[in-house]
Write a structure and sequence with these properties.
Length: about 220
């Protein structure tokens, strides 16, 4: 069996053991890896992949997605509003909805080409200056604006917690926020902390290096 498939199956098994309700989706974060490296997992039948740069994603996935309609592509990186139009054409999920200007452009771009994406609002749970995301205190207003005024299909929250060894605390806080908005999905957990995230109801885990190996 291919090493990538073996690693993927191990993570899948871990996730299954930890989740009591529905099985969380594993987003294989394929940023910086070539299609040659990713294809074994596609051929194996996996359908959820994550990229963090629009240009790189277009070069890798545009033609393949036309041939394989079942692929789901997730934008997991910071999205600039000037790239939003291209993102709407290619991606199926945006995990980094983090400001009003971006929401406005995404809404307009969707309507122009008659596409409806699924969105996660990125929450800056630690109020870190260097990090994107909506502060928890502004979340209700932003969610209402996106879902009610712009009619964006917001399915959950997304978080990258501060790296201060308090991951459980942040995951619990975001889980509670997600539940308070009655959202069904939650994008939380990466290679280092996905097991903890699943314990706090994450339904989408974003895993790269544990599947594909370290990036050069």
């Amino acid at each position: 069996m291919d090493t990538i498939i073996e690693r993927f199956e191990k993570i899948k098994s871990n996730v299954k053991k930890l989740s009591s309700d529905k099985q969380p989706n594993i987003i294989a974060v394929s940023k910086t890896f070539s299609l040659n490296k990713i294809m074994p997992l596609i051929e194996y039948g996996h359908t959820h992949f994550g990229e963090n740069k629009v240009q790189e994603a277009l070069a890798k996935w545009k033609e393949l997605k036309l041939k394989r309609k079942n692929l789901n592509l997730h934008m997991i990186g910071k999205l600039q509003s000037n790239k939003a139009k291209s993102a709407v054409e290619l991606f199926d999920y945006i995990h980094s909805l983090d400001n009003q200007k971006l929401a406005d452009v995404l809404s307009k771009s969707q309507k122009n080409i008659n596409r409806s994406l699924k969105y996660f609002i990125q929450v800056n749970i630690g109020n870190e200056i260097q990090k994107s995301g909506i502060p928890a205190s502004d979340l209700d207003a932003f969610y209402n604006y996106c879902s009610k005024e712009l009619d964006l299909n917001v399915i959950g929250l997304m978080v990258i917690p501060p790296n201060d060894k308090n991951t459980k605390k942040y995951f619990e806080a975001v889980c509670n926020l997600n539940n308070s908005l009655a959202l069904k999905e939650l994008s939380m957990g990466m290679s280092a902390d996905y097991e903890e995230a699943v314990n706090y109801q994450s339904t989408y885990v974003r895993i790269g290096s544990l599947i594909f190996g370290s990036r050069s």
